Amino acid sequence: MSSMDPELYLYNLTLNKPFASIGSIVGYFTNVDKNSQKKRKYQELIIATNSSLHLYRLNPNEGKLIKILEHDCFSVIRAIDVFRVPGGSKDCVVLTSDSGNLTLLTLNQSNTKFEIIHNEPYAKTGLRRITPGEYISVDGKNRAMMISAIEKNKLIYILNRDSDDSILISSPLEANKSKNLTFFTCGLDVGYDNPLFVSIECNYEDDTNQGKKFLNYYQLDLGLNHVLKKYSEQIPDTSNYLLSIPGGADGPSGVLLCSKNLIQYKFLNKKNHSIPLPRRRNANLESFIISGIVHKMKGSFFILLQNNLGDLFKITIDYNSETIDNPGDVNSIEIQYFDTLPITKKLLIFKSGFLFADSENSDKYLYQFEKLGDDDENAKSWNSTNYPDEESVFEDEDVTFDIKSLDNLGLVDILESINPVVDTKLLKLPKTRDDSDLEDIPTLYSLCGTGARSSLKILNHEILTNELVSSELPADAQKVFTTKLSSSDEFDKYLVLSFVDGTLVLSIGETVEEVTNSGFSLASPTVGVQQLGTNSVAQIHSNGIRYLTYDKNNQAAEPNLTEWFPPAGIKIQSCSSTSTQIILGLSNRELVYFELDEKDELIEFNQRVEMSAQILSLSLGDLNAKNKLRSKFLAVGTADEMISILSCDPDDCLEVLSTQLLSSQPSDLMIMEMANQYSSGINSEAIPSSSSLYLHIGMKDGIYARVLLDERSGEVSDSRRCVIGTKPVKLAHVNISNQNMIMIFSSRTFIGFNSKMSSLANDFKVLPLKDKIFTYSFNFKSEDCQENGCVGVYRNNLTIFTINEVANDLLIESIGLRYTPKKMCESNKDNGIMYVIESDYNITSPFVKEDVAEEDLKNGQQIEHDENEDVEIYQQFGYPQEQNKWGSCIQVVSTIDKSILQTVELINGNQAAFSLTQCTFKKEDNGDESEGEDYLIVGVSSNQTFLPNGSTENCLLCFKILSNGLLKFIHKTKTDSLPLAMTSFQNKLLIGLQNNLILYDLGLKQLLRKSFASLNCKQIVKIEVMKDRVVIGDIRNSIIFLTYTALDNKFIPFIEDVMSRHITTFKMIDYDTVIGGDKFGNIFLLRCSSEASDMTVEDNHGTYLATKEKFLNGAPYRLNNLCNFYLQDIPTSFNKGQLSLNSYSGSDSLIYTGLQGTIGILLPMVFKSEITFFVKLQNLLREELAEYGYLITGRDNLKYRSYYSPTKGVIDGDLIEKFSMLNYSGKSKISKILDRTPKEVEKKIIEMRLRVYF
């Protein structure tokens, strides 16, 4: 097919967006009402990742960061900063991107969305070192900003306001110089003098100063509208960071210049002040500053700086503040150790006393200031008065300090992140329970983090529950209910348990006790319980209704009893109720309807209705949402696979309004009003902006469906369905965080809710509860559990639990690792064991005390860490540093117990592990093949160094895998170079050494070489095999297919890619197809032609392929490129499988992960009509979203997704889902072209997500 009509189409969806930060800012972005007398209550935080903006609001009362907004930019964000034009009422955002535009944004208070103020073009699209935008510096008074490139170009813009209070931006003023490199810039605070900017630069044109760095000052003359270089001075060659000092009335102005082991105060030609940058005691590596923050307080300010080890230092400046017009002279600067945090990209301080650490890797942290460190008399400090010049700083040897646990800061909140993701496996959980389907949903296991903070993360799309109480029951319970005795009761009074042959009533209070005088029928199973009227409760049991009225002044007294019984021999099979209504489904197919009158008496409707088949389920709905007197509709599910909607209106009571045929019998029904879309308030949680009435349907074949119920006519429409399990589906209504949700029971327990943070309108999610299976559940509210409480039963167990968080549907569980993980492989046996190799450079492992001989390792001796070593200390401070030293180990991890079973330290010869695989070697004994034994092969290097790349020895370590999954060292085999890729191939070991492919078999003392092939490539980084076919990925020459001829024991390359790609990972989808990713963030799909593939099967000796004419000195054939797509994250793994039970026609999807935390899925599209629809929708959205203003940077989406090669064969599902962000006119315009309604388009979009995702 042509490139306009590819052979294959994939639908791309990002399930977890990358959370590696480009920058972050704090400000008042939403407070815009000038006339309001209410003071600003909260500050907001914006985190910019590589292609999106995340808005959080800080709640200082709870110490929590609440996510308000997530905006996809579909462009590469380069830098971000905050500014407020003088006289403005709120802060605005400035960011640069690959769009070539300088983007100014404001946050709309009414709809909490980013709006474009200006998109000022200044360069071509794309990223170049001469394109401004790498650095943004804003003047201290927000009057101007400088946009700098890495080389040559600098642009300065003047900011102003017009009479309508609109922000104006001037034409750019240039400050360019050829062959000039810029390392850092910042805007100085000089009060209301002409704006001044300072930068660290190096000019490589001048031979005399080549390689030397200078501190250059650029002044903007507002009167002449001109930029000039005002001052320049040479600075240390290791200078890397600048931090502006408050000026004008707030401080002395100037800048802190940070270099290796040195901090200096500088301001034009004023006196310089120098202080040492303290180092940890016994630390061998140099120290330099990576981030810092200045925080202004009333009448003073202080500075925090962080070095490359995470240590925080507080700097105070003593200056003369006598004159206000001219900044005072600085007398001295002083530095002292403050605390130690994870290494950050940026530090931010809120005015309410919180510090946000925008961590470079893993989670991001929010701390609260406990104190400022001023009252610590034992704190060691260094003052610039003791150092008259720069040389004296380096002469001082007493510049060390002792680290300490957090003292001045206290951790209050964590933003979870899986960045960086090194490797991921998609595996099913081992079967641990005979009656559950927990193992049916695969789980993602990811290697994440760096250093001592590394972990193996278990990623599930599940909802975490918090178990409060669990107790055993005398028998298996079928249902559980809670009820109040009076409508005025704040908490539930009774907990009712229904068994096969009876009912148990328990009181809810300080203790849970059985109630003997409840008035409930205990001899029959309870079908339903409902609090009615003011002081009444109805128990519906299989033999009738007990209507109990309690004394409001003495609820413990015996209640007044009124009973109703069905005809003789007839049983109540199902029921539903509200606070004023009861409906019964009898075994003779009749419906019996009751309502409360004005005197709270239960009155039966004088006419009964007989249904067409046995009544299986009923639902009246809920009255609490709008305080209605009665539910308007009744849903009836019958055994003829039909649902009927009946009216409850007194004028046409129990008349059929509509019917709906099903694919299976309805096992349960639930009418419920649910929010469609949420809007985020400024000082409140997200609130529903619209809601609709829905009918939830559970079917006997394990299908759950949700249909829209018209509130006027009772017609049903817009059906959505998904697979829940293999058992009949039961439903229960729960209220979590003041949001109506549906609990769904089958093989597993699920909860359904509308997501508050999703970009999709009406994004209804159905997610399983973590490790919880219930047969039924109900709301629970008591003095000890006042919100988000539920009670559930499973067999003979009763559990009271809470669900506190549903906003984040990615549940992350961590198993701590020792060093930075490199790779992992799973056990061949279904035992839940993973083998992980880990290595860290420039550290001394505290777990190794001395070298151990290889013979000791062979005898089973393992190097375990000292129990006295506190792992938490290393997680905070890292490991001791030592140049060119490695810490490396192999860990055996149990994913079932979430624990480390064994740790093998690589201690001999300063070894580091880089690759591993599990291999089954089979031995032949008298011509009979044995079953074979499993071995773990690890590729290691000794004294490995970088720049230049070298080592003293490379080898393969062979470990035997014992029956319990543990490792026993066997032998090692030396290799000529570092083995980066290896895999099991036909009961042998296949490894890649640079451009060589080598086949090994097991020997007694080492591995034995069996075959060798030299290929036309640079460095093999990954190998995949299938039958006799081998596919290799090269570090720069893309993908090469080889065939193995067993008769001649040869590997013959026969087809390769037409492009040079820097492969990071790939996966064989089938015998002829691979999907791969490169280091520039592209994914691609390649397929071997049928001609070439058939030739490898027919040519048993490979003679034809070996002698066929080579194409451009490569393989004789070329691969067909089916798909190209730009992710903007480096792919690190591909897995083939399913992430939910809602698989489409049983087909697998492709799950990929990216280095910065991306988790995405590629779904193969089958039907041509579907492909045509989404391709057309995608093209329309690219135009409409640009006009609507959603693409805030102005980057064209088609060009963005075609960054390195034209996008082909992939539909951008992330863009498709932005359809719901359009206004009604935009939706209608697109829908009309597609000949659909907006609801039909939205339904198609959501169905695509439900095929691969809960």
Descriptive report:
With 1254 residues, the protein is mostly beta strands. The chain is 7% helix and 48% strand. The chain contains 10 helices and 93 strands. The strands form 23 sheets. The chain has a 5-stranded mixed beta sheet. Strands 10, 11, 12, 13 and 14 form a 5-stranded antiparallel beta sheet that branches. β85 and β86 form a beta hairpin. The protein starts with 9 loop residues before the first strand and ends with a helix.
Give a nutshell description of this structure.
With 1254 residues, the protein is mainly beta.
Beta strand count: 93
Distance between the termini: 34 Å
Number of helices: 10
Structural class: mainly beta
Sequence of strands across the biggest β-sheet: 90-91-92-1-93
Binned, the helix content reads: under 10%
Uncertain residue ranges: 433-437, 680-685, 859-868
Let me know the largest β-sheet: 5 strands, mixed
Report strand %: over 45%
What overall form do the CA principal axes indicate?
globular
Oligomer: single chain
Mean pLDDT: 89
Protein name: DNA damage-binding protein 1
Domain RSE1/DDB1/CPSF1 second beta-propeller: 466-803
Subcellular location: Nucleus
Domain RSE1/DDB1/CPSF1 C-terminal: 888-1220
Question: Which SSEs are present, and which pair or pack?
Answer:
Elements lengths: L9 E7 L4 E7 L16 E6 L2 E8 L4 E9 L4 E7 L8 E6 L3 E8 L4 E9 L13 E4 L5 E5 L5 E8 L5 E3 L3 E2 L5 E8 L8 E8 L9 E9 L4 E10 L5 E4 L10 E5 L2 E5 L6 E4 L2 E2 L8 E9 L2 E8 L3 E9 L10 E11 L3 E6 L4 E6 L4 E6 L11 E3 L6 H6 L4 E2 L7 E7 L5 E7 L15 E6 L6 E6 L5 E7 L4 E7 L10 E6 L3 E5 L5 E2 L11 E7 L3 E6 L2 E6 L10 E5 L7 E6 L3 E6 L3 E7 L5 E3 L4 E2 L4 E5 L13 E6 L3 E6 L8 E6 L4 E15 L5 E14 L3 E7 L6 E8 L6 E7 L2 E7 L3 E6 L9 E5 L7 E4 L9 E6 L2 E6 L8 E6 L4 E6 L6 E11 L10 H5 L12 H7 L3 E14 L4 E7 L5 E11 L2 E2 L2 E2 L3 E10 L10 E9 L5 E9 L3 E7 ...
Parallel strand pairs: 1-93, 23-32, 84-88
Antiparallel strand pairs: 1-92, 2-3, 3-4, 4-5, 6-7, 7-8, 8-9, 10-11, 11-12, 12-13, 12-14, 15-16, 16-17, 17-18, 19-20, 20-21, 21-22, 24-25, 25-26, 26-27, 27-31, 28-29, 29-30, 30-33, 34-35, 35-36, 36-66, 37-65, 38-39, 39-40, 40-41, 42-43, 43-44, 44-45, 46-47, 47-48, 48-49, 48-50, 51-52, 52-53, ...
